Amino acid sequence: MTGDHDPPRSIKVVSTAPFIVRGPTETVKLGNLTIPKGVHLTLLIGLLHYDPKIWGEDAKEFKPQRFSEGVSNATNIQSSFVPFSSGPRVCIGQNFAMIEAKIALAMILKSFSFELSPSYLHAPFSVVTLTPQFAASITWALKLLNWLWFKPRKLEKFLREQGPNGNPYRPFLGVLEDFVSHENRITTTNQTNSFIWFGPWPRLNVADPELIKEILNKPDVFQKPLPETGKILAGGILFLEGEKWAKHRKIINPAFHLEKLKNMAPAIGVSCSNMVEKLKAMVSSSNEDWCEIDIWPYLEDLTGDVISRTAFGSNHEEGSKIFQLQREKAKLTLQLLQLSFIPDGGQNTINFVNESALFPKSAFIKGFIMILFRRYLPTKTNRKVKATANELHSLLRGIIDKRLKAMERGEAIPADDLLGILLESNSKSNQEHGNKNAGMSIEDVIEECKLFYFAGSETTSSLLVWTMVLLCQHPEWQTQAREEVMRVFGNSEPCFEGLNQLKTVTMILQEVLRLYPPTPLIVRGSTETVKLGNLTIPRGVHLTLLIGLLHNDPEIWGNDAKDFKPQRFSEGVSNATKIQSSFIPFSSGPRICIGQNFAMIEAKIALAMILKSFSFELSPSYLHAPSSMLTLQPQFGAPMILRSLE
Ligand code: HEM
């Protein structure tokens, strides 16, 4: 639009053609009519040009001489000749078109005389020139159709021809039901050769250790599908890819080096000892020497508190507030998903092959729809999620700004917490590249801090709770672990140096990670068509890496695969199975969990402190219901009877 005047605000273009269409953006008066928004007006240029009232009785005749005195004298009604439209949006190319037409005509006239062939049929018809807007709508409609129907059908055919089986594709809620009933039963006997539907994407199950290894070793080819859905809960490195991921990973890595973690061990100890003190107070306030407590919320609080302390050190108070807000936000968001398992009937170990737990489909579908519209519907929960997210963001920004200002003033910033190490590593990266924007932006740092809570607290509390449950179910291992802790630490507080000597505790934690991996499955999608084993995987197929199933496979772990036997790790992880890379609770390859050492140190300190202070057994009210939403959690908590030992 290069006219001297802007088009009238109340009329907007709908399309251009031999006729022109307009639609008012608000109710307007037009002559005697009131035209509300939503009514389209077809401006019939053709009819106008043939109108005898305007052009005379010979309106339909070819009489160029009517223009002999110029356009303005050709009719008595001005603006009746609008082949190029009129007003501010008059055709910008009218002169171009006239020049071109004149040159072409002049050359033809110079070279030829011409007459109509007898075969000529006079049949002018109008081909609508699509406006970009119109074209875009059609393109989008076709894309949508392709996405929802043609592509899934093509992928399905492609997969079936190669062997894998699954339910036929049924768009919309049909495929959701498929997802619900299959994914969550973690299902069927022939896992690896089957797929389920997740929306229009087929998800192929993979539980072969070699294939899983191959997938995880090629993070550029096998990336996280739908990172946007993950970002609803957290941002940061977990959902980054390519160069940005590599940059963040390099900057964050130093924060998780062992010598840094060693410095964080005392802070972890403080959080653990605070929790133990609270539990002791509960026991001593009861009339007996024991007390029934649901240990799950205590462990959730513990791992959040540990991140608050280790991430923000001196700003621990603000860190705790951040944790509360983060948890509130995650809970509100998960409320929208409302997913849950029905208990599996009190089995001793979760059985990933024959798991009969089911999601209530209606709750799932309702939750899924709600999350889809989460950003658009101003529901009470949505508004609360947004307000919480804003508060969280400004708190984090406040802490980071304070630290950055201190750095600018040349003050020594605390470099023994995750945030300090992150900022230090970031500023090193800026210096190395001689560019103050080479590292992460403040927004990036904020996202990474939020991710520490998300990735680090639910996972570690999951490990701790299942460890306690299994130690209740196998009291002989509880006794052995306690004896070891007492041998190593005696009456002193557990410290970093002693953790390496906790062989039995380590074996127990590993066996729990095998049977109850906090992240029982991870998903990838290929960025291009690739060979994977005997299969060709086109882009658009998702791959579900069934860590839980892999950890329970009798062919890998033996016939006692489902039993709790920490002794299988007595010679270390590499000797626990014949097939290497079959134990991957922290994933593997370049994107292996950055916090695995952190998690193990935290779990050992916490467990050592609990074992020193209490003996524990399951309460009769305990219901064994491992439920996997994002991490494996006890759906009905973990009520236990704690007896004080000190
Ligand atoms: C028992 C505890 C934990 C388990 C079982 C666990 C498991 C995992 C797994 C399976 C992944 C890979 C996810 C994927 O690629 O889709 C992962 C990634 C990650 N974990 Fe952990 N995690 C634990 C604790 C932690 C802790 C304590 C932190 C930090 C404080 C942490 C931070 C991360 C981060 C940042 C990533 C993303 C790494 C990347 O993409 O490069 N995790 N974790």
UniProtKB/TrEMBL annotation:
Pfam families, A to Z: p450 (PF00067)
Protein name: Uncharacterized protein
Bilayer topology: Single-pass membrane protein
Family of the protein in this entry: Belongs to the cytochrome P450 family.
Database matches in InterPro entries: Cyt_P450, Cyt_P450_CS, Cyt_P450_E_grp-I, Cyt_P450_sf, Cytochrome_P450_Monooxygen
Keywords per UniProt: Heme, Iron, Membrane, Metal-binding, Monooxygenase, Oxidoreductase, Transmembrane, Transmembrane helix
Annotated compartments: Membrane
